[in-house]
Amino acid sequence: MAVQRGCQIFSSGSTDSIRLVNHLCSGRLEVMLNGSWSSVNEDDFDQQDAEVVCRELGCGPPSGLQGALYGETEAPEWSREFLCEGHESALLKCRSSVQKYSGKAAGLTCSDSGNIRLVGGDHRCAGTLNMKNMGEWKPVYGSQTDMKFAESVCELMDCGSPITVRIRKKRQTSRETIWLLSSSCGGSNLIDCWKFIDQGCDFYEINCSGKNIEYAVNVFFQVRTVTLSL
User: Fold this and answer.
1) Could you report the per-residue pLDDT of 189-223, keeping only the tens digit for each?
2) Which of 39, 103, 142, 152, by CA, is between 20 and 30 Å from 201?
3) Where along the chain do its domains lie?
């Protein structure tokens, strides 16, 4: 399900036209064609195609093309071959043709998005939402609390589930530029436009639960279980 605040920011593992069946940024690729989801044959799915898919889903660059990791699923007999150049904003904007195949369905792994972070909180999973665009980190403008939006942020950062989401008022004397989510945005699912605003702007502040990691520590020949919240 795509997440929107004015313009589309990122997607929770799918858009209206593509999805990865397994995880937020990895899984078997499926494409919406003629009203139904269909797999893509892995023989003709290359690095350029993967770059477009990962970008469209709001994930980081592709790190692997291995359909077998997500089950030995057969691709349909008739499958669409995509001929992306790597710069397209969506897979269905690439040139394509329908071909007859006999093979496995394509799967891929994108690196998790490194384009969002929470800063100023007690740990990495809490604080003011920042996004990176054109090499610059800036806070993100918010106008109302939205738990579904916060759920996607926490999930994308591997930070569990949201505990609180609120709007933090910006200091009126601050001249800090921010990323403004605008209905005129286009292109990829990560924010790709911004506007300078010098006052009256509010920021998203999100507190995620964090990811509990349990491990055993041998102290004086006794095993103890320690839980850390990262």
Assistant:
1) 333 333 444 444 677 899 999 854 333 333 333 33
2) 152
3) 2-110, 116-213
Within 8 A by CB and 6+ apart from 58, the residues are: 9, 10, 11, 113, 115, 156, 188, 189, 190
The three state secondary structure string of 64-101 is: ECCHHHHCCCECCCEEEEEECCCCCCCHHHCEEEEEEC
What confidence score (pLDDT) does residue 67 get? 56
Q: Which of 117, 156, 125 is nearest to 229 (CA)?
A: 125
Task: Tell me if 94 sits within 8 A of 45, measured CB to CB.
Answer: no
The answer to whether the beta carbons of residues 40 and 79 sit under 8 Å apart is yes
Fold equal for 2-110 and 116-213: yes
Query: What is 2-110's CATH number, 3.40.120.10, 3.30.70.360, 3.40.50.1220, 3.10.250.10?
Result: 3.10.250.10
Distances in Å between the alpha carbon of 1 and those of 14, 152, 202?
A: 6, 10, 25
Question: pTM above the 0.85 mark?
Answer: no
Sign of CA dihedral 51, 60, 138, 7: positive
**Distance in angstroms (rounded) separating the CA atoms of residues 36 and 26:** 20
Q: Are 212 and 227 in contact (CB under 8 A)?
A: yes
- Segment 35-76, tens digit of pLDDT: 888 888 888 889 999 999 988 876 778 887 765 555 566 666
What CATH architecture does domain 116-213 belong to? Roll (3.10)
